[in-house]
Amino acid sequence: MTNAVIVDAIRTPSGKGKPGGQLSEIHPAELLSAVLRGLIDRTGIDPALIDDVIGGCVGQAGEQALNITRSAVLGAGFPETVPATTIDRQCGSSQQAAHFAAQGVISGAYDIAIACGVESMSRVPMGTASMGKNAFGPGVAARYSEGLVGQGISAELIAARWKFDRTALDEFSARSHARAAAADFSSEILPVAVGPDTQATADETVRPTTDVNGLAGLKPSFYDERLAQRFPEIDWRITPGNSSPLTDGASGVLIMSEEKAAALGLRPRARFHGFAVTGSDPLLMLTGVVPATRKVLDKAGLSIDAIDTYEVNEAFAPVPLVWQHEFGADPERLNPRGGAIALGHPLGGSGTRLLTTMLNQLEQTGGRYGLQTMCEGGGMANATIIERL
């Protein structure tokens, strides 16, 4: 079987997803173009050799509409012969892009592909794509007659059912900031020009001084009187401090067959070892990381203890906490460089961001296996295992 290997992986720094954020003046297609050019500049490959570019983006409206990945390919100066497509698996969009790219290599359909993702939440706010309309349709409404809820309420339900109190959520969040502040991201961050003589080189959302006392003063984000009556078990513990901030960012991974890497004189950094994707309860939509992880471990024939680092997307603090609880996982291996609560969550760009960070963690620590999983809107999750080479 052909192995799909990672030759390079980079990301932009995070920018606050609001006007005035450090990346907010950059068109999202140009933000992704910068990542694509960066992969070419760092590896020296001829972009004409790329069989496909698969990008993730959730808010495919406005400046992110009309296949933004193709716009980024053209804006990056790639030959017009290089195709591109944009996919939406909600928060896991670019992780799914990596799956599709690697699976294309393994099948023999591709020799070289780029998986990538972008989201500019300052320029295309969350929810823009639905234009205020009911995106679910009557069949979903009939099936879930009591009504589905937003992700914030799902996070509240998870915290209540697994009995994670406010202190536990805030302690985890403070740890995320502390770990991110202590990490060395220089090998994975692509500096982005934000002015004639200015570059963004560091994540804008990391707050090194964050502590539990400060987080304790924040008010719940999602309290709703009607939902409080429907879900009396909720104690309203989810705040801006234990949730991922809205951010701008892009990331990308250069994937090819082991044989093609050898022919080009490139050193593979890791190989894809396992893939899984699963659906889950759309009410508790954030718990899909648990069955997705079980599925990928079973497929790979590995135990959780064989994994050297885990990247579980920190959409909200209860998500990695419930994952850790269900697997009895070592907390020291869980998001050791911080996670989305500190680094931000640019939706379509987060999947390959986590993959980039996980790869660099394995290289810096000498670990062998890394496992990544992300919860996704609508009740889904992806899981990926890579092996450092």
UniProtKB/TrEMBL annotation:
Domain Thiolase C-terminal: start-end pairs: 267-388
Pfam family, one: Thiolase_C
SUPFAM superfamilies cross-referenced by the UniProt entry: Thiolase-like
Cited InterPro entries: Thiolase, Thiolase-like, Thiolase_C, Thiolase_CS, Thiolase_N
Domain Thiolase N-terminal: start-end pairs: 5-259
Keywords, ordered alphabetically: Acyltransferase, Transferase
Superkingdom per UniProt: Bacteria
Record flagged with keyword Transferase: yes
Keyword Metal-binding: no
Protein family membership: Belongs to the thiolase-like superfamily. Thiolase family.
Protein name, UniProt field: Thiolase family protein
Organism: Nocardia jiangxiensis
